[in-house]
Records
---
Amino acid sequence: MKGEVRVLLVMVLFAHTAFGQIVNVQGLMNEPIRVKKYEDISGSAYLYEDWQKGDVFDRSGKIYKNLLLRYDIYKDVWELNQEGQIYLLGRDLYTQFVIRGIDTEKQKGYERTFKAGYNQIEGFSPKDCFEVLADGKITLLKKHVIKFINEVTSNYGTATEVKRFQPSVKYFLLAGERATEVKLNQKSLREAAAVDSDFSNFLNKENSKIKSEADLTDLISNYNR
């Protein structure tokens, strides 16, 4: 009897994964969301409010393609919309996410990659998810962070409670097992580059000005070529 149950479970899993779906079987640690979140809070907890097409990689390397995904930055979890049922994807199981869409301001498509599993970044766990801006000899990571702020303001003797989400980002350079936080300015970058002589020499030759995320991403990408 137990053997038959195992065979049935395998068949169910195969049927779903063959069509690029993640099935919510007990033990896969995908939690259904049954309540509406974040009511009466200004701002957004999400990278994008709408669902994005994308792929999910589990820790064994299996790819689940063309899913509807949404990144809850505040809780640092990914949500899956599967035929109208919303799941929280287990952080122990899934290590990479790729989302695709159209940037309406720039009028062009984008593809953004997020990974977990980094154990050398102080203050974060290997389960925490980082956006990969550049990868190679030096990896440039972006950590999206959202804090919940609950304030009480007073106006003409009337107290008002204000709840809001406050977004921020951090950038890290990874060289081997060393991770260094870097800011979007030349001084910070040169201080971070001191840990790698090749990169430091590259900076001296390039003499690039770093004023934006795009500047930093281009610089690291050029070094990695």
Note: Residues 1-20, 24-28 have pLDDT under 50 and may be disordered.
---
Amino acid sequence: MPEPGARRLFVYYRVAIADLPTAVAAVRELQDALRARHPGVDAALLRRPDTRDGTATLMETYAAPGGVDDALAADIERLAVNAGLPGPRHVEVFEPLA
């Protein structure tokens, strides 16, 4: 589990309902590749329960034992671009409270 004060990344974006199965498969593949490249990374995929205008909101979360540094964040975005995930992707950074 991440250390107190270690940065965590939250990435959210909208996906057309028709494209949801493809997007979910792409994110799972991205997260598996990320875990292989960066042992100890904790990655999850969440979905907002409601839909709006034919889209669903997905959220990817990332944590690492020492926190998500700039290099890891850049690798996440590189993998997302290569996976063809929809945009825009909104990235938020949070730190846990002690």
Note: The radius of gyration is 13 Å.
